[in-house]
Amino acid sequence: MEPNHGVSPRRGRPRDPEAEPRIRRYAVQLLLERGFEGMTVDDVAEAAGVGKATIYRRWASKELLANDAMADLFDLEIPDADTGSIAGDLRQVYRVALAFANSEYGRAMIRLAVSEANRDERSAAIYRGVLERRIEMTRQALERARARGEPIKSTADPVLMVEWMAGVFVIRALTGQPMPPPEDADRLADITLRAVLELPVSEP
């Protein structure tokens, strides 16, 4: 074995800590501009200023990259809420969700979901993954509420809680109607609460 005379071996270029969020950001941008079929790993790599190998070290396929980027975006734009009550959680999430749906970015995202999910099964799988993540967050919110002693109905269904609001967004996107404004958050949350909470029966 040859001596190294105290010289440390050269290492490769250090990893860029900003690479992953930058890759996700450009993946979403290209999805919005071109749809799933038109987005390529080559284009994402070029836009993010990284090599393809950098992307494939983190995501084994374009599908996984797109899914992760979309889920990350929705988590950032519509984060989970833990306010101490299910009513507070719903109102906060609804306010943020409605603000997102009324933004130019949010409207473009919803239109893309509607058009691409019907055209391409791989795109549909991406949006199912986003919904499933939101459903799991809602399930956890219900469990926290039960643990606090809130009167959550045994029939409270996190799937329907998520899908009814998503359905409002999809219908409005399909028909070209404006999205409910953020000021409607409390009213829409109250509709959900009536389906979720065991409310006292009023005397006739």
UniProtKB/TrEMBL annotation:
Ranges of residues in domain HTH tetR-type: 17-77
PROSITE patterns: HTH_TETR_1 (PS01081), HTH_TETR_2 (PS50977)
Domain of life of the source: Bacteria
Molecular functions (GO terms): DNA-binding transcription factor activity; transcription cis-regulatory region binding
InterPro entries named among the record's database cross-references: DNA-bd_HTH_TetR-type_CS, Homeodomain-like_sf, HTH-type_TetR-like_transc_reg, HTH_TetR, Tet_transcr_reg_TetR-rel_C_sf, TetR_C
Entry-linked PANTHER family: HTH-TYPE TRANSCRIPTIONAL REGULATOR RUTR, TETR-FAMILY TRANSCRIPTIONAL REGULATOR
Protein name (record): TetR/AcrR family transcriptional regulator
